[in-house]
Amino acid sequence: MSNETPAKDEIVRVRAQVVHIMESGLRLDAAGAPIPRDTLTRFEARLGETLVLDWLPETAISQNPYIEFTFKARESAVLKMTWTDQHGVLAEAGRQITLS
């Protein structure tokens, strides 16, 4: 994160890496059987209750995708990032943002 104590209305840059295998379902294992699809279906970032990013990944996303986005700091709150995969597995990370 570029700044955890931004001034009001300052642009904050967030860089995150989501640890996920991102299997497309198009590859075969050593025995020639299809490897089941296992991809992220949604990534969401909220500052408090305010949605700042909603991303619906598609098939051609790399394993452990790197995400970079910006938002305008309008309030002190927790920046909460959540991601889910097609099996319903949910993971999250967060940081406190405090306006200076």
Low-confidence stretches: none
> Percent helix among the residues?
under 10%
Q: Tally of extended strands?
A: 6
- If you consult CATH, what is the topology? Immunoglobulin-like
What is the CA–CA distance across the termini?
A: 15 Å
User: What strand line-up does the widest sheet have?
Assistant: 3-2-5-6
What does the average pLDDT come to?
A: 92
Q: How would a crystallographer describe the biggest sheet?
A: 4 strands, antiparallel
**CATH homology superfamily name:** Immunoglobulins
- Class from secondary-structure proportions: mainly beta
Q: What is the count of DSSP helices, taking H or I runs of 4+ residues? A: 0
Short summary:
With 100 residues, this protein is mainly beta.
Structure description:
This protein has 100 residues and is mostly beta strands. It has a single domain (11-26, 35-97), classed as Immunoglobulin-like (Sandwich), CATH 2.60.40. It has no helices and 6 strands. The strands form 2 sheets. A 4-stranded antiparallel β-sheet has the order 3-2-5-6, with no helix packed on it. It has a two-stranded antiparallel ribbon with strand order 1-4.
